[in-house]
Amino acid sequence: MTLVIKQEKPKSTFSKIVEIISTMASRPSGLIGLIILVFHVTLAITSPLYAPHDYKAIDPSLMLQAPSSEYWFGTDSLGRDVFTRTILGGRTALTVTFFGSLIALLWGGALGIFCGLVGGKIDDVVMRIIDAFLSIPWILAMLLIVSLLGTSTIVLIPALGFFYGKGIVRVARAATHDVIAKDFIVSARARGHGNFSIIWNEILPNVRDAIMVEGAMRWSWMLLGFSSLSFLGFGVSPPTPDWGLMISNARGLMSFAYWAVLAPIFGLSSLIIGINLTADAFAKALGIDRSTKAPV
Amino acid sequence: MQQVVQEIKNLSIGFTSKKGEQISILKNISTTINKGETVGIVGESGSGKSTLALAMMGYVKHGLFTISGECIYQSNDILKMKNRELENIRGRKIAMIPQNAGQSLTPNLKIGYQIDEALRLHTNFKKEDRDVKISELLNKVRLPSPETIAKRYPHELSGGQQQRVAVAMALAGNPDLLLLDEPTTGLDVTTQAHVLELLNFIAKDTGTSMVYVSHDLGAIAQVSDRVIVMYSGEIVLDGPVRTILKNPIHPYTYGLLKSIPKLTLSGLPNSMSGSQPQPGTIKEGCSFYDRCEFAEDKCKINSPELEFVSELNTSVRCFNHKKLHKKKDEDTKSSKKVLRKLNKNEILDISSVSISYAKQKFIEQLLNKIDDTNPTVKDINIKIDKGETLALVGESGSGKSTILKSIAGLIKAKDGIIKFDKNKILSNDLKKRDANYLRAIQLIFQNPDESLNPNHTVEEIVSQPLKLYFGLSGNELKQKIIEVLKKVRLGEFYLTRYPRQLSGGEKQRVAVARAFAAKPDIILCDEVTSALDVSVQAAVLNLLQELKVDFGTTYIFVSHDLAVVKAISDRVAVLYQGRLCEIGPSESVYKFPSHPYTEVLLGAVLEPDPDIKPKLVAEDIVEEKPPEKGCSFQGRCPRLLGQICKTDVPPWQIDENGNAIRCHIKINDLKNQQISN
User: Fold this and answer.
1) 3-state DSSP call for residue A78?
2) Among the residues of B293-419, which ranges form H helices?
3) Searching chain B, which residue's CA lies closest to the CA of residue A181?
4) Quick check: A111 pLDDT over 80?
5) Under an 8 A CB cutoff, do A192 and B455 touch?
6) B118 touching A, CB under 8 A?
7) Interface touch A191/B445, C-beta < 8 Å
8) Does B303 touch chain A (CB under 8 A)?
9) How far is CA A127 from the centre of its chain?
10) What's the confidence (pLDDT) of residue A110?
């Protein structure tokens, strides 16, 4: 048989990542999302190096100053520099939610794939438990955990990871269900491969994309959730700067010191928008259109 | 002068690629559809036949656009019409019957309502008149008791009945032109023959012009007056059906007809090399150049124009059509003889196997028993010799795939024993099977798109059995993979490909390679060629045959295509509703189909020859469940004896050729009856 076929080289993982990122950046929304996200991450890593003031220096004489050349975003009710606190305020939130999302991704993905694969009674029972957890308002449960175990990051990361992983279980299970009926799984079964081998070799490469996109979306939700906890006073303890906490402290004075509340709001919402846009572009670059598949 | 219903002038439809290039799907199509004429459009997948049919309705798929040309209906270009204007034409003047009627009918509306809706939109009848018209339409498409059908929901009808309803809906507006997009592809053999016969009748009765799009030359041969053959977005041949099918003067059609397995031929058909080029890859020259056995140097550079050959009344796009003109019949009938290597060495013994899909009750689960008096598959006894190809044939629901899966251990059999290599009993639980037995039995699936993991390279796919059964790794593994790929005629550079970068035939070759990598004794083939294009099908069949000769592998071959089965099998087992009807050497089964069901089945096979009409012996009723008592075929049998068929399971009878059938009528009487018909 004479066939003229153009030779293609296999792609390395690195070049695949480069390709995905360049596809993401090729759309305006993806590019904006990536820029915002990279900006926030860089800021979080480097901000302690150039923060102009001490974030915890209280000076009653400087209370609620309007933005000036010295205090770019003004000062808050305790006379602390809002600019310094804003650029430092995303550090805890980003770290906690990033690791929280990773945990959510791992346990949610693993349990989802497992349920999708085994099916039957086990699947039924596990999914009903997940449904039961979904019906509990997560914030109440979080408040309970935090008040029992304290607000340290060691408590917050796994707790948030647990609550935000429930949705991933469903997505991973649904994605596995799509794959499980395909003949290549039947073929692997007929050859006599074990469950672990089927999950690792046959299912995971096909559901990985869907789970990762879901994880990226959960990250932005978790960020909002974490900030809500801080806002309620259960997240980060003062004087550590945190957007949620800053909004909570300054909101009473909003009518005459709007800067103290606007700056952290801007920080928080831009980060969430950035993650959302990036996650959407990521999904499109991987060929998953979230607009046609509603997340559970 | 014939009245023209639609005229297509220089139509090109295409899309813009990612790189900004304009790529044509249809290239300069010009043809006319005359009144009362049935035109068959044939081509493989990707030849642009459906795009052409849709353009005739003034519809261009999202992402595609008209590059040039027009589609003239009643002196207007329908491709330039606005939606409002199209509404008056679609359904009323030009109607479409889709491929899958089951999906095109709204599932939660009753049939009567849906036809009424079509009437309301496309005609000016009053309510009372419409009710009469509904019955009339349902009668016309020969649905039994129209009143009851009208009150049913789509899911309560069988596939053939749904297709008839779709025809009735299309006829509601009394259109001038009826477009049919593969209307019988998803149907069973017997149902297909009935629907085609109905379409023929309607064409004559109403004088409607029809455009029949299909990849199946057999179906095209039965309905069309004129045939258009498409290849790679171009019309390559256009002429009367007899000329096209009996004296094809284009090399593609010539090769295509040779590669179709036919009942009248013995042995495997010749295969065509290569596959259809992707749109946009051919820049100059004839698009068939790569695969053409008559190609010359000028074909590579110059594209042939459509040329009218007046003596045959046919247009052809080829420089060398005169060569083929002289070639004619004697060549078209040549075919390779199948090499048979039979040594009487029993490798698989299936005895009294029954399989049930019934849900186990709680108690039964505890006792690990299934209590089903009427299982889906019952009482299967087959012995298979080493190196034999046994085919299981039957319509959908006959349990052929179920039996295959139970041999592979994927479905637990309710009763019965499957013995491998004389005395080793195969457990019906996959997990309890010995690794060596798992290796010995390999499966090849129908659709390679589903059976190959889309995220694995060819190397990873073929390495799976090698790693699992032989524990190979590193360089040794790689060498072995290359060796296996070579056996299925794939080069080393395929190693890094993903399935999506391969054509349908190549994908199926990879699937075959994966099965053979395990060095199996038995390969179970589940409709391995039905997802492939006709020209590729023959190549895969030939490959399987060659591998069998080389390795002495035993095949169990499941198919609904009786011509394919005839070409490849040594022995045929005919199944109806999960019960065996007839089993015997394929030559004698095809020559003297003794069992009434085999007779019905073979009668309905469509040959790509307009002069061989299918014999429609029985009604195409679809039975949901096998009967509780008596013969499995009692519901449709044209030779029903009487009460005995309904109460007693027929006994086995064997004739002198080794054909075994299950029927109450004496085997010789059956043969005499058939001859007297």
Assistant:
1) coil
2) 297-301, 321-332, 362-367, 400-408
3) B450
4) yes
5) no
6) no
7) no
8) no
9) 23
10) 92
Q: How many CB atoms lie within 10 A of CB B278?
A: 11
- Residue of chain A whose alpha carbon sits nearest to that of B453: A184
What is d(CA B242, CA A103) in angstroms, rounded to the nearest whole number?
A: 69
Contacts of B396 (CB under 8 A, 6+ apart): B188, B560
Q: Which residues of A touch B (CB under 8 A)?
A: 1-5, 7-10, 182-184, 186-193, 201-202, 205-206
Task: Name which of B362, B405, B455 to mutate to probe chain A: the one with the most chain A Cβ atoms within 10 A of its Cβ.
Answer: B455
Query: According to the model, what pLDDT value does residue A295 have?
Result: 38
For B494, the closest chain A residue by CA position comes to A7
- CB atoms closer than 10 angstroms to residue B640: 18
| B218 CB within 8 Å of a chain A CB | no
Q: Which pair of tokens denotes residue B676?
A: 């007297």
Tell me the nearest-neighbour CA distance from B264 into chain A, angstroms.
Answer: 28
Lowest-confidence segment of B120-134, B283-297, B457-471 by average pLDDT: B283-297
- The band of B442, judged by pLDDT with boundaries at 50, 70 and 90, is very high
Query: For all residues of chain A together, what is the average pLDDT?
Result: 83
What DSSP assignment string belongs to B415-454? EEEEEETTTEEEPSSGGGS-HHHHHHEEEE-S-HHHHS-T
| Confidence band for A290, pLDDT divided at 50, 70 and 90 | low
Q: What is the pLDDT of residues A206-256, one digit of tens each?
A: 888 888 888 888 888 898 888 888 888 887 777 788 888 888 888 888 788
Which of A2, A180, A183 to mutate: most B Cβ within 10 Å?
Answer: A183
Confidence (pLDDT) at B351: 85
- Return the CATH fold of A91-296: MetI-like fold (1.10.3720)
Q: What is the pLDDT of residue B212?
A: 92
Q: Per the CB < 8 Å rule, is B489 touching A184?
A: no
Q: Span A162-191, mean pLDDT?
A: 89
Note whether ipTM > 0.85 here. Answer: no
Encoded amino acid at A65, one letter: Q
Instruction: Dig out the tokens for B514 from the structure.
Output: 């994966």
Give the CA angle between residues B428, B433, B437 to the nearest 5°.
110
- CA separation for the pair A206, A193 (Å, rounded): 17
- Please state, in angstroms and as integers, the Cα–Cα distance from residue A37 to each residue in A40, A44, A226, B534, following that order: 5, 11, 18, 52
Average confidence score pLDDT of chain B: 85
pLDDT band at B328 (very low <50, low <70, confident <90, very high): low
Nearest to A184 among B274, B453, B501 (CB): B453
For residue A103, what are the CA distances in angstroms to A45, A99, A159? 21, 6, 10
Q: Do B438 and A192 touch (CB under 8 A)?
A: yes
Q: Does B478 touch chain A (CB under 8 A)?
A: no
Tell how many helices (H) and how many strands (E) occur in chain A.
11, 0
Q: What is the pLDDT of residues A55-85, one digit of tens each?
A: 777 777 777 777 777 777 777 777 788 888 8
- The confidence band for B461, taking pLDDT boundaries of 50, 70 and 90, is very high
Contact between B181 and B138 under an 8 Å Cβ cutoff? The reply is no
Q: Is the peptide bond before B585 cis (omega within 30 degrees of 0)?
A: no
CATH 3.10.20.310 corresponds to the domain B1-93+175-224: no
Query: A89-92: long-range contacts at Cβ-Cβ below 8 A with a sequence spacing of 24 or more?
Result: A89/A241, A89/A242, A89/A243, A89/A246, A89/A264, A89/A267, A90/A40, A90/A43, A90/A44, A90/A243, A90/A267, A90/A268, A90/A271, A91/A44, A91/A47, A91/A241, A92/A153, A92/A235, A92/A236, A92/A240, A92/A242
**B443/A205 touch (CB, cutoff 8 Å), yes or no:** no
Q: Which residue of B has its CA nearest to A194?
A: B431
Q: Side-chain half-sphere of B232: how many Cα atoms within 13 Å?
A: 23
Q: Nearest CA to A55 among A21, A92, A6, A89?
A: A89
**pLDDT exceeds cutoff 90 at B665:** no
Does the structure show a pLDDT above 90 at B232? no
